[in-house]
Specification:
Mean pLDDT: 96
GO molecular function: aspartate carbamoyltransferase activity
Protein name: Aspartate carbamoyltransferase
InterPro entries: Asp/Orn_carbamoyltranf_P-bd (IPR006132), Asp/Orn_carbamoylTrfase (IPR006130), Asp/Orn_carbamoylTrfase_sf (IPR036901), Asp_carbamoyltransf (IPR002082), Asp_carbamoyltransf_Asp/Orn-bd (IPR006131)
Shape: globular
Function: Catalyzes the condensation of carbamoyl phosphate and aspartate to form carbamoyl aspartate and inorganic phosphate, the committed step in the de novo pyrimidine nucleotide biosynthesis pathway.
Number of domains: 2
Bound molecules: phosphoric acid mono(formamide)ester
CATH superfamily of the largest domain: Aspartate/ornithine carbamoyltransferase
CATH architecture of the largest domain: 3-Layer(aba) Sandwich
Order of helices and strands: HEHEHHEHEHEHEHEEHHEH
Largest sheet: 5 strands, parallel
Enzyme class: transferase
Radius of gyration: 19 Å
Strand content: 5-15%
Distance between the termini: 14 Å
């Protein structure tokens, strides 16, 4: 891969190579201290981020590379003066060996590749995709279950605007015998293009209407917040799907609860101490899988 724009680019072989490398980096981080010693990586974030930006920036530093960064690039870079993404990439690539882009437009990272001679990594684009989140989600599932094929997963929340869901589903579609249950409130259903994508890959997708429709033996519950920043007040509405301890008590002791974070009220704090609630371990895995990804591009 020259660039990483979509989970459609993954293969199971590539994912498993990254999982093995991420495991090594987790166990022996010091072994990679100088792995990218002479490299420079740029992070261009036109939308807010805590996990993706800081885990990428930590990964850069832990691999011994140098970092150049613009947080809030929408206002604090020359984008505010009208510079388009093509010109920004043409300029920034002169200063670095890879560019990590988060943008409010779905196709900005793809546009960046049209002029880029260094790798472009999509760190989340609008309501489209977030492939490196899918990497850490798949790595987390694999770490806890020792397999991905054969899992049953329920995706919950804002299935329409949630780019983490879109990229995760495309990643899961690489594996066999996956069954997906989708639950959202009205208006935030999974767009048809993803349902068709799953169907074309032989994945069963059940659009369900209640938490009661999820089998008690589900392997993974993957919840997401409502992306209110992409809606007007009326659309944002109310009626969140809430997971609390009473809900978790319905599921098996092997049912993992994941969330890309940040969360709002959709997972109540009483669940945090449940050993099945693995969202903070999930976000920590973002560091190791992003180290593995950068190493595979630049090492
Ligand atoms: N999960 C995720 O993308 O979080 P941030 O928006 O904080 O990067």
């Amino acid at each position: 891969m020259k660039h990483l724009i979509s989970s459609e680019q993954f293969t199971t072989d590539l994912l498993h190579e990254l999982f093995v490398l991420a495991d090594q980096m987790k166990s022996n981080p010091r072994d990679f201290d100088d792995a990218l010693k002479h490299k420079v990586v740029a992070t261009l974030f036109y939308e807010p981020s805590t996990r993706t930006r800081l885990s990428f920036e930590s990964a850069v530093q832990r691999l011994g590379a140098k970092l150049i960064s613009t947080e809030n690039a929408r206002e604090m870079s020359s984008a505010i003066k009208g510079e388009n993404i093509h010109d920004s990439i043409r300029v920034v690539q002169g200063y670095c060996d890879a560019i990590i882009v988060r943008h409010y437009e779905n196709d900005a990272a793809l546009k960046a590749t049209e002029v880029a001679r260094v790798p472009i990594i999509n760190a989340g684009g609008g309501t489209g995709e977030h492939p490196t989140q899918a990497l850490l989600d798949l790595y987390t599932i694999y770490s806890f279950k020792q397999r991905i094929s054969g899992i049953k997963i329920a995706v919950l929340g804002d299935l329409k605007n949630g780019r983490t869901i879109h990229s995760l589903l495309k990643g899961l579609a690489l594996y066999s015998d996956i069954e997906v249950f989708g639950l959202s409130r009205k208006g935030l259903e999974l767009p048809d293009e993803y349902i068709h994508y799953l169907r074309d890959k032989g994945i069963t997708y059940h659009a369900i209407s209640s938490l009661e429709d999820i089998p008690a033996s589900i392997d993974v519950l993957y919840h997401t917040r409502t992306q209110t920043e992409r809606m007007n007040g009326e659309e944002a509405g109310s009626g969140e799907i809430i997971i609390d301890q009473a809900v978790m008590n319905r599921f098996s002791d092997q049912s993992l609860l994941m969330h890309p974070l940040p969360r709002n009220q959709e997972i109540s704090a009483d669940v945090d101490s449940d050993p099945r609630a693995i969202y903070f371990k999930q976000s920590e895995n973002g560091l190791f899988i992003r180290m593995a990804l950068l190493y595979s591009y630049l090492g």
